[in-house]
Structures are given as structure tokens and as C-alpha cells.
Write a structure and sequence with these properties.
Layout: E1 2-5, E2 12-15, H1 24-37, E3 39-42, H2 49-57, E4 71-72, E5 75-83, E6 107-114, E7 122-126, H3 127-133, H4 136-142, E8 146-149, H5 169-174, E9 180-183, E10 185-187, E11 194-196, E12 203-206, H6 209-213, H7 218-224, E13 231-234, E14 241-245, E15 249-253, E16 262-269, E17 275-276
Parallel strand pairs: 2-3
Antiparallel strand pairs: 1-2, 3-14, 4-5, 5-16, 6-14, 6-16, 7-13, 7-15, 8-9, 8-12, 10-11, 10-17
Length: 281
């Protein structure tokens, strides 16, 4: 097994392994790389839905089928992220998966099925590196604060449909999803590292109104995550696999390929409720 670092802050490409058949020692090394590099990439894996589910289950208990995404007909926990002619992707947002849940996912396993000739990259950012870059005075002001997260961005998208009465399926499902509060600075449950736990798609507002009066806004915090030195961009190939730590990253799908056919399979692993990071200082 060979691990090639993508950059000092996030990402590593791993070769010399067969994800569908790796032994316990190899998987332990993969898992450590997952914790260390936050997103890990593999080439030429060509996982079946069964193999993808088995691989994801080694990381933890699997999430239920996604409430909005279509899925493989025989495997409802394998979501299909697909673009087809006449059905292009909509607006893309930087996001951390499903933070509208009280216990957002731990990680995701994404496998490329087929791709356009060019375009369609995905970018990840280390929110641990983003937090570390913040001025100390700002870190102090964020300590102990919370933000509200809620479903946003699926209504009217390619994952939505409208019934005979003109009602959005996504909006109908979303009505039962109550907004949740998460710490703005969360502690990674395994490494203990602090992360700036906000994302552009699902974080709706900071809960302390005084913060905005002090010039601390979500947009200002999001800007720190736009620093390319904290990011890694992955060029997909058929058979490529990406596994990322949802507890300390955001990601962004680059929708520069129009409606050219593109399909990826995603399986998500359950996480725990985020806990606030408490500095020892």
C-alpha cells in the first residue's frame, strides 16, 4: 500500500490495495489515513453496490436511505448522484453532508460509475485547517457558540419532482425536518481536533445576534474556507473512489459539464451528535 499526500492540509491518494478484499491490517492502515488526511482517494476499484456497502460498513453503521436522492433499485442505501441529457445539475454549494440532522454522518464512500470526457471534479476543504488559520481573538469569540442548520437547496433541484397538484416532493418531506443547533467549533470525536463546523448549504444563521454586531457573520467565516491552500481538487475517473471525513470537511461539486452523462454511487455512514471543542487554555 502506497500513500501519496495531495497537500499538507488535506487529501491523499492510496494505491496498491483492493478495497473489496483488503484484510484487517490493510484496512486499519486505510482507516488511519482517513483520519489523518480527511479525504482519501483510490483508482481502478470498480465496486459493485454490495462491495461498496460492505466497505462502508467497515467504517460504522450505515445511514438509512437518503430522503431525497434516488438510489440503486436493489440497494436503497446506495444513492445515485446522476446527470443525464436534459437533466443537468443545479447550483452547487459548499456543504458538509446532512448537517440538518442532530447526528450528521461520520463519512461517505463515493464511487464513480461513468463520467463526462472532462469536468465534474470535486473539491474538499479541511475545516480543521480553516479553524487553525483564524485569528486568536476570533477563536475566542466563537468558543461556545452555536449555529442553526436546516435543509436547504434540494427543492426544485434534479432530485425533486412535482405531483399532480404542483407540490414539491422535497418540500413535502422537508416539512417534518426540524432545524437543529450545532457548535460553531466542534471537537472531532476521534482525534479531538477542533474544526469550524459550518457549511454554506445547510448552516442558516449564527444563534448569538451579538456576533453580527461585532462583525462576525457566516459569510465572513465562509470566506476563510475559500483559501485554496486548505483545499484538494480530485479529478474523477471511472472506478475512482473517494472516502471523506464528514466531521471536519466541506466539499463542492464542480458543475462544469452541462448535462453530459455522469453517475456516482454514494453510501453514508452514521455519525454522532457534534460536541463543542473546549480549549484547555
Amino acid at each position: 500500500m502506497e500513500v501519496t499526500l495531495c497537500n499538507p492540509n488535506i487529501g491523499a491518494e492510496i494505491s496498491g490495495v483492493d478495497l473489496a478484499n483488503c484484510d484487517e491490517q490493510t484496512f486499519a492502515e486505510i482507516y488511519q489515513a482517513f483520519l489523518t488526511y480527511k479525504v482519501i482517494f483510490f483508482r481502478d476499484q470498480f465496486l459493485s453496490p454490495e462491495s461498496q456497502l460492505k466497505l462502508a460498513a467497515r467504517f460504522g453503521e450505515l445511514e438509512e436511505p437518503h430522503p431525497f436522492f434516488p438510489h440503486v433499485s436493489t440497494h436503497p442505501q446506495v444513492s445515485e448522484i446522476e446527470t443525464t441529457p436534459g437533466n443537468p445539475p443545479g447550483k452547487s454549494y459548499w456543504h458538509t453532508d446532512m448537517t440538518w440532522q442532530s447526528a450528521p454522518p461520520k463519512c461517505s464512500v463515493l464511487c464513480a460509475q461513468h463520467l463526462p470526457d472532462k469536468g465534474g471534479d470535486t473539491i474538499w476543504v479541511s475545516m480543521e485547517a480553516v479553524y487553525a488559520s483564524l485569528p486568536e481573538t476570533l477563536k475566542q469569540k466563537l468558543a461556545g457558540k452555536t449555529a442553526t442548520h436546516a435543509v436547504h437547496g434540494f427543492a426544485g433541484s434534479r432530485f425533486d419532482d412535482v405531483n399532480g397538484d404542483g407540490e414539491s416532493r422535497v418540500e413535502g418531506i422537508s416539512k417534518g425536518m426540524v432545524a437543529v443547533k450545532h457548535p460553531v467549533v466542534a471537537k472531532h470525536p476521534e482525534t479531538g481536533h477542533p474544526t469550524l463546523y459550518i457549511n454554506e448549504q445547510f448552516t442558516r444563521w449564527l444563534d448569538d445576534p451579538i456576533m453580527e454586531k461585532e462583525g462576525i457573520t457566516l459569510d465572513r467565516l465562509f470566506d476563510y474556507a475559500h483559501n485554496a491552500s486548505f483545499q484538494v481538487r480530485f479529478r474523477w475517473e471511472t472506478g475512482s473512489v473517494a472516502i471523506w471525513d464528514n466531521r471536519c470537511t466541506q466539499h463542492f461539486a464542480v458543475t462544469d459539464y452541462g448535462d453530459k452523462p455522469r453517475k456516482l454511487h454514494r453510501v453514508v455512514v452514521k455519525g454522532t451528535q457534534p460536541e463543542p471543542f473546549e480549549s484547555s487554555r
